[in-house]
Amino acid sequence: MDSPQHSGTTRRRITLDLGRPLVTWGARPTVTIDGVGHPAQWGSGTWAVAEDGSTDVGVYCFNRLWRFGAAVATVGDSDALTYRAGALPVGSGRLTARRTTR
Fold first, then answer.
1. 44-62 as b/e: b if 16+ CB within 10 A
2. Could you give the 3-state DSSP secondary structure of residue 5?
3. Who wins on pLDDT, 53 or 7?
4. Residue 1: is its pLDDT beyond 60?
5. What's the gap between Cα 78 and its chain centre?
6. What digits encode the pLDDT tens for the residues 25-64?
7. Are 86 and 92 in contact (CB under 8 A)?
8. How many Cα neighbours within 13 Å face the side chain of 41?
9. Does residue 7 sit in helix, strand or coil?
10. Domains and CATH numbers, the chain
């Protein structure tokens, strides 16, 4: 079984734009890459993913009381994702892939 390598060994990165919902009640986003959770901040950032194949990327919001706004997408050819939570801290979010030009 291959053990995961630290993020400094990968050359493939994706851009993830995390949009803050209107009402957060202190919620913070969490990004999951292939099931491993990573704390995040609102705004745009880059994340290391596997160099080949597809990777499952998920985002959810957490505010000490409950989780909300969960969304999952599989990253294959796209190199950028946009996350939008619902207007209120209930229900699911939306994670859409987009292709950026280089």
1. eeebbbeeeeebebbbbbb
2. coil
3. 53
4. no
5. 13
6. 788 999 999 889 999 999 999 998 888 778 899 999 988 8
7. yes
8. 4
9. helix
10. 11-98 (2.60.40)
Residue 102 confidence class, pLDDT cut points 50, 70, 90:
low
Q: What CA–CA distance (Å, rounded) separates 35 from 43? A: 21
Half-sphere exposure of residue 70: CA atoms within 13 angstroms, side-chain side: 6
The C-alpha atoms of residue 91 and residue 53 are separated, in whole angstroms, by 30
What is the pairing mode between strands 55-62 and 67-75?
A: antiparallel
Distance CA(55)–CA(72), nearest Å, equals 10
